[in-house]
Recover the amino acids of this structure.
């Protein structure tokens, strides 16, 4: 089972938007609505930011949004803030292979 | 309040078997639709999903590691145990346990435990 493909890095200035892609196959991202996104600050455990492609858990700012088209899911962070600087990982249910994470994207706030 | 905490050895020797315990509170693993998962992260690298167990004792394993992994649960103790055989230095990582819901999202995580494999 190969990891989902994410760009290694992304950046934006404060108040700008940044979008991270997560590309899989029809056996994972494209085949199910179970795509999640996690934020991880250095030395900390990941935090769930988006589930079921576009839903936000309670307490997650609405600056974070998710979408999916075909085999590619995306996370958009609008109105970037300094505290958004972190690593972001996507994940997907993968049918017979059960579960897979993305390669991770480091977001830098310029 | 949902919490999870990993415990186990910080150092294991090559070829040894690693046993990690996830002790959780605030939910029951006998509730339909509930899972507990193990994930690892080598230093400076990406997250890697290892395994999860569900409310009905269903066990699900990473294809690449399934021959080395075993997951089990003790519902009365609110614990999930991971064993990984034949440890190698490349298995050095922070190991996390996390709660997974029926939406296949990991909504609560433990703080992680660093396991180093070295002779």
């Amino acid at each position: 089972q190969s990891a989902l493909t994410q760009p290694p890095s992304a950046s934006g200035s404060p108040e700008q938007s940044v979008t991270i892609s997560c590309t899989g196959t029809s056996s994972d991202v494209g085949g199910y609505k179970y795509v999640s996104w996690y934020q991880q600050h250095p030395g900390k455990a990941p935090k769930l930011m988006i589930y079921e492609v576009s839903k936000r858990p309670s307490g997650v700012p609405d600056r974070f949004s998710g979408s999916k088209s075909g085999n590619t899911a995306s996370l958009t962070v609008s109105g970037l803030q300094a505290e958004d600087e972190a690593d972001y990982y996507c994940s997907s249910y993968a049918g017979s292979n059960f579960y897979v994470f993305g390669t991770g994207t480091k977001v830098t706030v310029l | 309040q949902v919490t999870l905490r990993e415990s186990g050895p910080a150092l294991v020797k090559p070829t040894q078997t690693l046993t990690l315990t996830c002790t959780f509170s605030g939910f029951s693993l006998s509730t339909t639709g509930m899972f507990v998962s193990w994930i690892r992260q080598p230093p400076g690298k990406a997250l890697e999903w290892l395994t999860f167990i569900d409310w009905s004792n269903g066990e699900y394993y990473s294809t690449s590691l399934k021959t080395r992994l075993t997951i089990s649960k003790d519902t009365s103790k609110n614990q999930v145990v991971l064993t990984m055989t034949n440890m190698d230095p490349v298995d050095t990582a922070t190991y996390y346990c996390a709660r997974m819901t029926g939406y296949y999202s990991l909504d609560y995580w433990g703080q992680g435990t660093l396991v180093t494999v070295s002779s």
